[in-house]
Amino acid sequence: MSEPVQTPQTFPTRIFSGIQPSGGLTLGNYLGALKRFVQKQDEGIETIYCLVDMHAITTWQDPIKLRQQTREAAAGFIAAGIDPTRSILFNQSQVSAHAELGWIFNCVARMGWMSRMTQFKDKAGKNSENVSLGLYAYPALMAADILAYKATHVPVGEDQKQHIELTRDIALKFNNDYKENFFPITEPVIEGAATRVMSLRDGTKKMSKSDPSDQSRINLTDDADTIAKKFRKAKTDAEPLPDSLEGLKDRPDARNLINIYAALADMTPEAVITEYAGAQFGTFKPALADLAVAKLSPITTKMSHLMQDPAEIDRILGEGASRADAIARPILDQVYDIVGMIRSRQV
Ligand code: AQP
Predict the structure, then answer these.
(1) Beta bridge partners of 48
(2) Based on CB atoms within 10 Å of each CB, which residue in 8, 98, 166, 290 is the most buried?
(3) Do both 315 and 296 map to the same domain?
(4) Catalytic residue check, 123
(5) Which pTM was predicted?
(6) pLDDT tens digit sequence for 239-296
(7) Residue 71: how many CB atoms within 10 A of its CB?
(8) Catalytic residue among 123, 173, 230, 285
(9) Is 35 a catalytic residue?
(10) What lines the ligand 1 site, CB under 6 Å?
(11) Residues 184 and 65 both lie in one domain
């Protein structure tokens, strides 16, 4: 792939990330992404967070549910600690720079790069002739989401690492092709004990909001009883917990529960295994359920409170979109200039 022609330029630190409102938020989204989003905001970094509704429609979405899920995800962000006055919070379709830059990046990204995207292969499966063109092109739109703000860092879960690498390749190729040091080469930020939370039914599969089995995931809207029941029924084996992480090497279901505990408790997985060495799952699972309820139920309660005022959520998203547009539009205008488009319309 492309080599940089320019010497590295420093771009001011700016964080961008997003979540698809293609279903309810899961514990995977929370631990892999949302919890980190809040930490970055609280560190005082400039943070821009987006509900990527245009990505959501790469697979069919019922329009009424999509609106509901977008509001619910916004409520989830705020309930988890995103402060819309300190971070910019909006939904993608309200800032057209994403789609416009996405098209330009469709013309920069190479077919060979796109065909290597493992998430497309996983999602399309054997049905690749019948999925939408948008699902295939989605990583180029994701690159536009990030680079429309010249974001330097993107907190994500492990599954998005390849898409950030593609974003870097697109930025490098654009900079090389147009001999401009225009876009930063964005860094993924993949941190913590739960960068890849696995399904509660299958420790080798990612926990996902679109998994047909609701038992496979914890939703941020689940009540305490449901959370406890799901952890009680989570797939495990009959062995007690070992005294070191090495002992979990071939036990993905057990490893997943240890990682979830560690991430929720802000501990290392090593510390959790030391604490529970020799324990049976009959002891560990209720402790995990109690911890999850303690951490998640304040978020769930706040979310349902916020959801009682959908007009206020829409107002917050609209205001966030105006602030996002004020950053992205001038960047996009420069991109149009760089690629040679006439910009003579009076506005
Ligand atoms: N299981 C997970 N563990 C850790 N991080 C995760 N993320 C998602 N699932 C996990 C992170 O959450 C952010 C938003 O992801 P997304 O909603 O845009 O898309 P996704 O990665 O495709 O998530 P889902 O839940 O699997 O959605 P569907 O089912 O609609 O495809 C990203 O930072 C992601 O890494």
Answers:
(1) 16, 88
(2) 98
(3) no
(4) yes
(5) 0.94
(6) 999 999 999 999 999 999 999 999 999 999 999 999 999 999 999 999 999 999 999 9
(7) 23
(8) 123
(9) no
(10) 19-20, 22-23, 26, 28-29, 32-33, 156-157, 159-160, 195-197, 206-210
(11) yes
Measured in Å, residue 28 CA sits from the centre of ligand 1 at: 7
Whether the Cβ atoms of residue 12 and residue 59 lie closer than 8 Å to each other: no
Closest CA to 16 of 45, 44, 43, 55: 45
Output the domain CATH number for residue 245. 1.10.240.10
Q: Where are the beta strands (DSSP E) in the chain?
A: 14-19, 46-51, 88-91, 153-155, 187-189
What would the pLDDT profile of 190-220 be if each residue is shown by its tens digit?
998 899 999 999 999 999 998 999 999 999 9
The type of residue at 323 is: R
The number of folded domains in the chain is 2
* Whether residue 225 is found in the same domain as residue 181: no
Separation between Cα atoms, residue 17 and residue 164, nearest integer Å: 11
Residue range of the domain that includes 221: 214-305
Joined together, the tokens standing for residue 41 give 């905001």
Structure tokens at 274: 């030391």
Six token digits for residue 59? 């697979």
What span, in angstroms and rounded, lies between the C-alpha atoms of 42 and 99?
Answer: 30
DSSP-based three-state secondary structure for 5: coil
Asked whether 139 and 146 are in contact (CB, 8 A), the reply is no
Dist. CA 30–CA 268, nearest whole Å: 17
Could you tell me how many residues make up the chain? 347
Which residue bears the tokens 């009424």?
A: 64
Token look-up 């105006």 returns 322
Asked if residue 227 is part of any domain, the answer here is yes
Same domain, 171 and 274: no
Residue 345, in any domain of the structure: no
Are 288 and 318 in the same domain? no
